[in-house]
Write a structure and sequence with these properties.
The chain is an alpha/beta fold.
Length: 271
């Protein structure tokens, strides 16, 4: 069994337009080959369910909110212990920490670092739409946070390591995506990817694609990691941590398409 595990914004879908049209050939080739595509994103379950339909993905797990939870379709080979069934036609395994617990910790992180921050909870749907370029209905789904609190730093020079260190002091973590910092519990994309790989039909060969620091755990958990460049180039944190990783030839869905087609041609379900 082969699996493709992929970040969305800036990787499978364009950072600005949210279009995946350039990746359609590889999406179709993966479906014909019977290779499930597992989105692994900071997006909410509501967003991910809509995207999976829009991209015509075969039923496969959805890793949401930076690994805070995994949604499994009922027909997935093995459902892990602890899933809650009957959610959107599938089952959900919670790996992270509830957003209600996380949100008060954001103020503690801000105080410890001397930064002025603004979380999603403080933003209206209109503000989220403006900051993300999403239409209002999609912005509303983006605000349906269950296991994370995205935020921006409005004053001060943010440093990811300092923010994460402060968050760990209060039992949380901070990572960074393409647009926002994310306050999460002690879970990440990598832990969720390992659960998905362990529940496949048998030992899977896995391709992972990402473009930002919050994708590092995902890329470290797969057999074949791919760094997708951002418009400014390959992210230095990913380059330093993954010197042997493959590099997509261009940003977003165009680069994603090229790498996935090449990988599908070069691999088989037996290795």
């Amino acid at each position: 069994m082969r699996l493709i595990l992929t970040d969305l914004d800036g990787t499978l879908i364009d950072h600005h337009t949210y279009s995946a049209e350039a990746a359609r050939p590889a999406l179709a080739a993966a479906r014909v080959a019977g290779v499930p595509i597992v989105p692994c994103s900071s997006k909410t379950l509501a967003e991910m369910r809509q995207l999976a339909v829009g991209l015509d993905l075969a039923p496969a797990p959805l890793i949401v909110e930076n690994g805070g939870a995994i949604w499994f379709p009922q027909q997935w080979p093995h459902l892990p212990h602890g899933v809650v069934a009957g959610i959107d036609g599938g089952a959900v395994l919670v790996l992270g920490t509830r957003a209600e617990w996380l949100r008060p910790r954001l103020a503690l992180v801000a105080a410890a670092t001397g930064l002025t921050v603004r979380g999603f909870t403080e933003m209206s749907e209109a503000e989220v739409a403006t900051r993300t370029g999403l239409p209002p209905a999609a912005a509303a789904m983006a605000r349906q946070r269950q296991f994370s609190e995205p935020f921006v730093c409005e004053a001060g020079a943010p440093d990811l390591l300092a923010l994460d260190a402060a968050a760990r002091q209060v039992g949380a973590r901070v990572t960074r995506g393409g647009r926002f910092f994310h306050l999460t519990g002690p879970s990440d994309k990598g832990a969720a990817v390992r659960v998905v790989l362990a529940t496949g039909a048998h030992r899977s060969r896995s391709l992972g694609l990402g473009d930002a620091p919050n994708d590092l755990p995902l890329l470290q958990a797969v057999d074949d990691p791919v760094i997708v460049p951002q418009p400014s180039g390959l992210h230095p944190d990913l380059l330093q941590a993954l010197p042997a990783a493959m590099h997509a030839p261009s940003p977003g869905p165009t680069g994603w398409n090229a790498v996935v087609l090449r990988w599908l041609s070069a691999t088989t379900d037996h290795g």
